Amino acid sequence: MPRFNRPVRYFAWIVAAALGLFLALHVVNALRLDAAGLNRSARALIERAEAVSSRAIPEYQDLTLARLPPNPNNGKFYRFDDNLHAAKISGKPPDSALEPGNEFQFRLEFDGAGGPKLISADGRSHMNQAGGLLVVTHHLGDYLSTEEPLDIPLAQVADFVMRARADKGNRFKIAWAAKGREAKLGEQEFSLDLIADGEFHTYVVDARNAFAYGVGDDESISRLAIAPSNADGARVEIDYIRVVSRQWKYQLEQAGTSHETVDSELRPVVHMIPGQALEYSIEIPEKSPELSFGAAALFDAPALRLAVSVSTDKGSTTVFEAANANARQWQDQRIDLGRWAGQAVRIAFSVQGSGSNVAFWSNPIVRSAVERRLNVILILEDALRADHLSTHGYRRETSPWRTKFMGEGGAVFLNAHSQAEKTRPSVPALMTSLYPTATGVLNFSDTLSDRYLTLAEILRAQGYVTAAFLQNGNAGTYAGLHQGMSSLLDPQTVGGATEKVFGERLLEWIDENSDRNFFAYVHALDPHGEYDPPAPFDRWYREEPAESMVGKEALPRSESLDPAWAKTPSAEARRRLYDGEILHNDGVMAQFVEELRTRNLLDDTVLVFVADHGEWLGELGRWEHGPPGLRPVIHVPLMIFYPKRFPEPKRIDESVQLIDVMPTILELASVDRSELLMLGDSLVGLIDGGDPERWSERITVSEEAMLMTREDTCACGSLFYGEWQLHGSSWGWPGRITLPFVKTAVYRFRKDGVRPVASFLPDLYVRQLRQKTLASLASANLATWRKLTEGEQRDVYKMDPETLERLRGLGYVN
Length: 814
Fold this sequence. Notes:
This protein is an alpha+beta fold. Helix 2 (35-55) runs parallel beside helix 19. Helix content is 25%, strand content 28%. The longest helix is centred in the N-terminal third of the chain and has 28 residues, at 6-33. Strand 5 and strand 6 (133-137) form a beta hairpin. Strands 1, 15, 16, 18, 21, 23, 24, 25, 26, 27, 28, 29, 32 and 33 form a 14-stranded mixed β-sheet that branches. Strands 3, 5, 6, 9, 12 and 14 form a 6-stranded antiparallel β-sheet that branches.
């Protein structure tokens, strides 16, 4: 054979050997992963998401709640706010005292009549007025801002309304800033879906709740801005922008349901203007019947006279009367209806007084005594990573009370994962048992549509009284998570220290409702940055000079992580302070649980301890929380304590996810789950030890929601199967590398931390499987979101005849 052929043969042998090794690597990896089982589980996951999508309809919430069978834990009840359609409205309201022209707290019209104007922030967007419209050729990155300072009292606003049409784009943004903080314009914003079909649409947003993010109830909005499209060169024609007066809206609606804040406490209400009565025909329960409600007014003056009467064929009895309804506090009432037990009656709520004021009836309900005691308290610690709990084996004794407490009974899940790395997408997933791509809440500008069913809504509809005590607004009204809460106290009310959220207001609420079955969601902000534990919980930091913890390189100071007094930031210093906050929380929760024990509530209460996400503490040079979604930022604690059901302590190693919490609570609360759209599984069977093969082969998922949009989900996130985490992210890759297929790594998540298993790096099969599974899952989930919301985000009204008429009646539509 000619000598010159030898290099060719050698090269062929090398190629053949490399190809053989490459194929052998795939075979070995497939065996290690149990590729056949992983494929089966991936198909099952996608089929389940598609089944949920196939059942999703806009009427899901109302139809499902109507079909839920009565809860065996609670007696009979009747919620008046849920049955406003059944009320008979009588009386003639007086003429409104609202001056004509005061319908709006702010308005922009473009008919050339002068008044406030919009300007382009950087001058790149072209604007002109024509035919009563503002015509904008929008440039991406620019926004339109009010030219002059505004003075819009937040307490007096109801809705933000914009009527516009666009030729392209799918989202627009609204931003605002409080008086005195105008430079922070853009720090608070939300996005809405833009219907770019060339037709006019009216977009309506609950401005009071939306603008509360960054503006106090006693403050004013000084600047407004909009980015009218997210498409460069879009032509947008704006008919008007208006901020509707809260008073005027109530005057026009006369009677309806809404949410109102009095004494810093948000409640669902029936609102009424004077001169009216709402009469309901109901049957009073036989077992210890009681009527309860809270009363308040929009203003302290002019005075309103409120009354409640109970009528039968034999006559009428006034059971409540007040002439001092005010805007400063809820006047809570509990009225014994025992004399009418078992009878058919008419209950009327009436309001008299000046037409310029509005009355609120919060949480009006007739109920009977509970049948079986079962309370639920869901405790969430923000940014708490599980591997820094001594309960989970951490070297510092950060959670001694929880270790002892969970040793008395219940389940500690050692490998629970959040569905996102930020509060805003994570908590809606927790509260709906749906992945972020199914809730549509991916970023800070997104809110949960009120067409979803939250855990609180379901429990309230089943007779539970519900409340949220929050130190992070991204778990409340900003995210649309006030839905179903009989009471919600936000960060401004609760205060900043952990003792505050577990303090007087929470204990008072529990005492007031201790004879009812209740659900309380308690969201503590610590150990979220900044890391600043009170003494003596800073001892791990204080016991060593700060300079000695610096190591090779000092860290730049971070206002969001380092307390003002810590002059020498370092990785070790931050970790010690973070651990001190965990220990501090542990002690506060110990005191709270002891309060439950002294009230004889502990044995009848399901306690769930979770976190919304973890925290980067220097791994990969990362701090705070955000992508990539590896263990430090998505491995969270999950502990369930309920001695009546789980008397023996258990430590469970299988991978579980936060969306499993809701179905678990519902099963323990005896709620029928057959009609609910959920992608999580009840963990009761896992705790009981049933069907171990199913749990070991189940795939769990975490999505990198903050890297996604509803148009491009990027298949970013992780699949957990067996001992493996298949992770892919667009974070940290050069922008020119756009194929998510290449951005995949595999980890033994229980022991490898953030070090990928090298043998999987060239594995094409694993990359294809992870990419295909997450892409298919996101596609099915987004179909669920579109079908539930009809492709629109919360408070954007489709122009169906009924909605059109309502908007026209409120003056929103010309």
